[in-house]
Design a protein that fits this description.
The structure is a single chain. The protein has 756 residues and is an alpha/beta fold. Helix content is 40%, strand content 15%. It folds into 2 domains: 275 residues, Alpha-Beta Complex (Spore Coat Polysaccharide Biosynthesis Protein SpsA, Chain A), CATH 3.90.550.10; 294 residues, Spore Coat Polysaccharide Biosynthesis Protein SpsA, Chain A. Helix 4 packs parallel to helix 5 and helix 10 crosses helix 11. The strands form 5 sheets. A 9-stranded mixed sheet has the order 13-16-15-14-17-23-19-24-22. Strands 5-4-3-6-9-8-10 form a 7-stranded mixed sheet.
């Protein structure tokens, strides 16, 4: 493109020279011969112009100038001829490139050329800017259903946000699962100048369920057909994308292509790059009708207002009904029906150049879409093999995809300066809260963490669980970071019930976790484990935020508040369900305590009964939890009584008590001011006591803490004096808040703290 522009500049300069030189010469020769209506001599010696002495000399000078003018004219004539020949050769070379490759430029959308199979050429001009105003909102529609597609959408959105310079409005046609996941994600992502609207995909099923579809996308793969009905009636145009798309350029460039539509063109599509619609892939291969190679619907430009006027709904339905009489079902979902309509009405389509949809399925002609990396615009992983597809440059494409997959989404919270954005109540409240903090306060970072909004991706993996109908079901709740990932399989072996986990990970770590989980037979065999990713931000481990996220997304009436380093005894799940009934947890405010023990051995023969555990306790293989460093945390459990207890017994709250408990799902959340190490569970147990929960120890339940390297947060607590000072300050403020909230009853917490 740069070479073409330089060539045009040279041609322009030469053309000006051809026109300018003779014009100036003749103006000088003839216009310059008169002054005030009188002839002026061409000789510089004006006073002697008419003397006989200089007459012969003047005549010779005029003849000499006339000869020179004729020479200049001849030179310019030759130059014009040379330029004309050069231009013809350049034009022929430019069009010759088009005949050899897919279009590297913008399409013309000419229907006659399309019927002839000619790929249209680029109309990009030197210095041409996209016809998109700076703050014009770009509308994007995506159909998304299920857990896997929700992950794919995030990568697509990241690639769009990375390049974008305009406000974006995403229209997500989502099922209940995808809506829950993506609504939380975008709400916590808080990207400026991005608006999200959801449309219930389940309500649209009746519109397309009558169409048999063999494609792996299922019924949701047909929903792009009904966008004219689904999207707002005042929305005139939209870019429609599949979830397996990656952008390598600003989406505004694609939005600008709408301005090139002419006449009745209402669909912008890229030609299909495989031989599918040619019908020669295998014997008896019979595809749906299509124009030539047909068109791929992974990227569509829709002129919604014109489509509605054309009665698009009636058009595609009649076509589908007619073709299904012989085809019986679709093989490529909506794409088959779009192509059948275009076959009958080729004037509807504006053919996009293929770099707007480089299709990386097996045996495609995608390599003809680009000559250089800079040519790439949109990559489409439209093979069921996805990243394992065969392509000469697949390693490059894979790396580009992985770049966005693992890219820190927090960095995409960029303001679009100069563009007014809609007021976001959550964002405004956050800014107000942060502005009230004193940045000179030595504990400012601790206080700020309480208000930090962490991007959250719920149900990162497939989750499927129906709670027991007897209303006794219990979910194990825990949180973890990357360094505790190895505990997951062991916990799943010990606890067969549902689990809710909040994982504190970076974007790159989330992908490592995904690969780890997908490679584990134990984890993949469990569909009742909800993995909720809370993305890293800030310098502290937000332990109580993580616990709250895991607690909030359980589907059972009760929960066991545990930690990831503990292995529950075998059979604890069923034992807790029986205890829930026995102790009438549904109608009483109780917190059932599961006594905690620990081992210092990395390899442990896990006790299969209480008797075996007591034996190991006596031999020094096991200890009561924190026996060596913090006995106060679990001393109120009264382990001496537990050794011989056969029935549940009640214990009283004491300062620094932090047992692991089973409670109803409506129990209070953890206090977010406590981050990292220190007082995060203590404060929660104190609040349960303030709300008059009874603490009841279960006589035949136990859990064992497994050894691990000290966490980064406990190291900071031990080595950083300011950390300990701030923790003490936060404790005092929490106790004051308790006194204000619970009144006289909360005074005992201040007294207990002073006596401890």
């Amino acid at each position: 493109m740069l070479g073409i522009c330089r060539g045009r500049r040279k041609f322009l300069a030469a053309s000006l020279t051809v026109l300018f030189v003779p014009a100036v010469t003749w103006i000088y020769l003839f216009a310059g011969s008169f002054e005030d209506g009188k002839p002026v001599s061409l000789s510089p010696l004006e006073s002697q112009a008419h003397s006989p002495r200089y007459a012969a000399s003047s005549q010779r000078e005029r003849e000499s100038l006339e000869v020179r003018v004729r020479e200049v004219e001849e030179e310019n004539r030759v130059l014009r001829k040379q330029l004309s020949l050069a231009q013809s050769r350049g034009s022929a070379h430019h069009h010759g490139n088009h005949s050899k490759t897919y279009s590297m430029e913008e399409g013309t959308g000419d229907s006659e050329s399309l019927r002839a199979g000619i790929v249209a050429g680029n109309s990009s001009e030197c210095g041409q800017q996209p016809a998109v105003e700076k703050c014009e909102t770009i509308h994007v529609a995506i159909v998304c259903a299920g857990y896997n597609a929700s992950r794919d959408v995030v990568t697509l959105v990241k690639s769009v946000l990375f390049h974008r310079r305009n406000p974006l409005h995403f229209h997500l046609i989502a099922d209940a699962i995808a809506k829950q996941i993506l609504a939380t994600l975008f709400q916590t992502w808080m990207v400026p100048a991005v608006r999200i609207d959801f449309y219930d995909a389940d309500e649209l099923k009746s519109e397309v369920s009558w169409i048999p579809n063999k494609h792996y996308s299922g019924i949701y793969g047909l929903m792009k057909l009904v966008l004219t009905k689904t999207l707002p009636s005042n929305l005139e145009r939209v870019i429609v994308l599949d979830t397996d798309i990656t952008f390598a350029t600003d989406i505004a460039e694609l939005w600008a292509v709408f301005h090139k539509f002419k006449g009745q063109q209402v669909l912008g599509l890229v030609e299909n790059q495989s031989d599918w619609y040619l019908g020669n892939l295998w014997k008896n291969h019979r595809p749906w009708p299509a124009l030539g190679r047909g068109y791929n619907t992974g990227v569509i430009l829709l002129l919604l207002d014109k489509l509605r006027k054309m009665k698009w709904e009636q058009m595609w339905r009649l076509t589908a009904e007619r073709e299904l009489m012989s085809m019986l079902s679709t093989s490529l979902a909506d794409q088959d029906i779009f192509n059948a309509v275009i076959k009958q009405n080729p004037f509807l389509v504006y053919q996009l150049p293929c770099f707007w949809n480089v299709q990386l399925s097996d045996h495609t002609r995608s390599e003809q879409c680009y000559r250089d990396v800079s040519d790439l615009k949109v990559i489409h992983w439209n093979s069921p093999k996805k990243l394992r597809v065969k392509n000469k440059h697949v390693e490059f494409f894979r790396n580009l995809y992985l770049t966005f997959l693992e890219y820190d989404g927090n960095l995409l919270r960029r303001e679009l300066f100069g563009c007014p954005s809609e007021a976001d109540v959550n964002s405004e409240n956050l800014q107000k809260q942060l502005s009230e903090l004193d940045e000179d306060d030595l504990c400012y970072e601790f206080r700020r963490e309480r208000f930090t909004v962490h991007r959250t991706h719920l149900y990162f993996l497939h989750y499927e669980y129906e709670p027991a109908s007897d209303n006794t079901d219990v979910t194990l709740v825990a949180q973890l970071s990357m360094d505790r990932l190895q505990m997951l399989e062991a916990i799943c072996k010990h606890w067969e019930g549902p689990i809710s986990l909040a994982l504190y990970l970076s974007d790159a770590e989330a992908q490592q976790f995904l690969r780890y989980a997908q490679g584990s037979e134990v984890l993949m065999s469990r569909h009742n484990v909800g993995y909720h990713i809370v993305y890293k931000e800030g310098q502290f481990y937000p332990v109580n935020l993580l616990r709250n996220v895991a607690m909030k997304h359980i589907s059972t009436p009760y929960m066991f508040l545990s930690d990831i380093d503990f292995l529950p005894m075998y059979g604890l799940y069923e034992y807790l369900r029986k205890s829930v009934i026995q102790l009438d947890l549904a109608n009483t405010k109780k917190a059932l305590i599961v006594p905690a023990f620990e081992t210092l051995r990395y390899r442990l023969s896990f006790p299969k009964s209480k008797a075996e555990l007591l034996s190991m306790l006596d031999m020094g293989t096991l200890f009561t939890f924190r026996y060596h460093v913090w006995t106060k945390g679990h001393a109120p459990t009264n382990f001496a009584k537990w050794r011989t207890a056969t029935t549940p017994y009640r214990v009283e709250w004491e300062a620094d008590f932090e047992p692991y408990v089973v409670v109803r799902k409506d129990c209070p959340e953890y206090d977010r001011r406590f981050v990292g190490f220190g007082w995060n569970k203590v404060a929660h147990i104190m609040e349960l006591d303030a709300q008059e929960y009874e603490f009841t120890v279960l006589p035949n339940a136990y859990m064992i803490h497994m050894p691990h390297a000290p966490s980064f947060d406990i190291t900071k607590f031990r080595s950083n004096k300011q950390y300990r000072i701030c923790l003490k300050t936060l404790k005092e403020e929490f106790q004051q808040d308790m006194s204000r909230h619970y009144g006289f009853a909360a005074l005992k917490y201040l007294t207990a703290e002073n006596n401890s």
